[in-house]
Design goal:
Helix content is 30%, strand content 24%. The model has no long low-confidence stretch (mean pLDDT 92). It is globular and about 50 Å long. It has two domains: 81 residues, Alpha-Beta Plaits (2-Layer Sandwich), CATH 3.30.70; 90 residues, Alpha-Beta Plaits (2-Layer Sandwich), CATH 3.30.70. It is an alpha+beta fold and 183 residues long.
C-alpha cells in the first residue's frame, strides 16, 4: 500500500465549491482507499491505496467529486516519497523563514524555465521563485497576500494548460509527514 496526498484546487474558498472534510473522507473511503485523513479545510487529504497510478487516482477522485457535489475540482495526487523530495529540495532556507514566507505550487506536469522567461523576476525582489520537479517554490518575505510576484506567477498566460495548486510551507511539510515521507 502506498500513502498519498490528494491536493484539491480551489475548494472552500469564499463560500465557493464547498466540500466538507468529513464528506471528502467518506468519499475517499467509498472509493476503496484506507487510512483516510484530512488536513485543514482547504482540500488536503491523505489516504492509502494499492494503486501506483497517481494520475488515475486523481482522475477517479475528480470524477467522484463531480458526481457527488455537482462541480468540477482539479485534483493532484502525490505519494509520500515525492512530497518528502519536495521538502528536501527546497532551494530557500526554510528553517530560517516564517512559514507564511514560503509557498509551494504543485503542477500536474513538468514545467521548464522557458514558461516563466517573460517574467522579469528581478523586478519583484526581494520576492523570488525557483522551479523544482513539478513544483514552484515561492519566497515572499511579506507573505502571500500582498505578493506581487505571486500575482504575476498566476497569470493565465504563464500557467495556461496546467493544473496548479499552492500550499504554504506548514502544509507542505505536514502532508509529507502525514504520508510518511518525512517526520
Amino acid at each position: 500500500m502506498m500513502m498519498y496526498a490528494a491536493l484539491l484546487r480551489g475548494i472552500n474558498v469564499s463560500g465557493h465549491k464547498k466540500i466538507p472534510m468529513a464528506e471528502l473522507r467518506t468519499l475517499l473511503t467509498e472509493l476503496g482507499h484506507g487510512d483516510v485523513r484530512t488536513h485543514l479545510q482547504s482540500g488536503n487529504a491523505v489516504f492509502s491505496s494499492e494503486s501506483d497510478d497517481q494520475n488515475a487516482l486523481a482522475a477517479e477522485l475528480e470524477h467522484a467529486i463531480a458526481q457527488r457535489f455537482g462541480f468540477d475540482v482539479p485534483c493532484l495526487v502525490r505519494d509520500g516519497g515525492y512530497l518528502a523530495a519536495v521538502v528536501d529540495a527546497c532551494p530557500f532556507p526554510a528553517a530560517e523563514l516564517q512559514a507564511r514566507e514560503l509557498h509551494v505550487t504543485y503542477f500536474d506536469q513538468p514545467v521548464d524555465a522557458a514558461r516563466f522567461a517573460p517574467l522579469n523576476a528581478a523586478a519583484f525582489l526581494p520576492e523570488e521563485f525557483r522551479l523544482g520537479e513539478r513544483v514552484l517554490y515561492l519566497h515572499a518575505p511579506g507573505g502571500l497576500g500582498g505578493s506581487k510576484l505571486a500575482a504575476a506567477l498566476s497569470r493565465p498566460t504563464l500557467i495556461k494548460g496546467l493544473v496548479a495548486t499552492s500550499r504554504n510551507w506548514n502544509t507542505v511539510t505536514r502532508l509529507a509527514e502525514m504520508t510518511g515521507g518525512t517526520t
